Amino acid sequence: MAKKIRVLLTKPTQDCHDRGVRYLARKFRDAGFEVVFTNFLLADEVVTTAVQEDVDVIGVSSSSGGHLPVFEDLMAALRAADDVLVIGGGVIPPADVRVLTELGVAAVFGPGASAESAVAFVTEHVRERSAL
Questions:
Q1: What's the DSSP call for residue 42?
Q2: DSSP single-letter state for residue 44
Q3: Minimal CA–CA distance to 53: which of 62, 71, 41?
Q4: Is 116 exposed, middle or buried (0-12, 13-18, 19+ CB in 10 A)?
Q5: How far apart are alpha carbons 11 and 39 in whole angstroms?
Q6: Whose CA is closest to 62, among 26, 86, 79, 84?
């Protein structure tokens, strides 16, 4: 039996807009992923949770701005755990998507992106990392 993909989905800071990320959590579970969901954690707390839960993926949702410092802190804290795929979602301007990609965020799923595209991306990229 293949190992299930483990995903940590989180809403940083006090961003209460969680409808999209909760929908994604359900879609990930429907796809057979194990999902851990957290709210209002700082970057180091997200990393600690990711390590404790032995996740393959961290998904950060941001819909109220302030995402750049959150991702900067998260990516800096993850330097020691480079085997974790990081994705983002929410309302993130295109110019900021480029910055996040440069930081090491693998993909950003904005408004209009389908949950199925996120499932397919995670499935493909976790398999690629596992094959290394």
A1: -
A2: H
A3: 41
A4: exposed
A5: 5
A6: 86
Q: Which amino acid makes up residue 100?
A: L
Place of tokens 């940590």: 8
pLDDT tens digits for 69-117? 889 999 998 876 668 999 999 888 999 999 999 999 999 998 889 999 9
Task: Give the 3-state DSSP-derived string for 64-126, with helices as H, strands as E and coil as C.
Answer: CCCHHHHHHHHHHHCCCCCCCEEEEEECCCHHHHHHHHHHCCCEEECCCCCHHHHHHHHHHHH
Assess contact for 58 and 30: CB atoms under 8 A.
no
- The Cα 9–Cα 21 span in angstroms is 7
- Quote helix, strand, coil % in the chain, to nearest 5: 45, 25, 30
Q: Cα angle vertex 37, ends 31, 38, to 5°?
A: 165
Label each residue of 10-24 as H, E or C.
EEECCCCCCHHHHHH
Query: What global pTM score does this model have?
Result: 0.90
